[in-house]
Protein: Heterokaryon incompatibility domain-containing protein
Organism: Polyplosphaeria fusca
Amino acid sequence: MRLLKSLLAGGGFELTPFSDDLAPPYAILSHTWINGQEVTYNELLVETGADKHGYAKICFCGEQAAADGLEYFWVDTCCIDRSKSDELSTAINSMFR
């Protein structure tokens, strides 16, 4: 699993991989997708997508996680590489555990 961390000095986000059993406490964003306006995994890696509506949701989640004393947070649209079917399948199955 990958978790996001806000980079306070200069903004932006960092994706950090963790094994499921070693992941630290983290916040999860529950949201409704807006077609074509969510920041994807690849867009986050190359630092594009800041003009999309979904970027504001990621920023909000990072701010709320920090306010709640959490360093990491998870947003499905950008923590899952949807171009890899095995990763997508694993992520979907883990949502229903």
Summary: Strands lie at 2-6, 13-17, 26-28, 72-74.
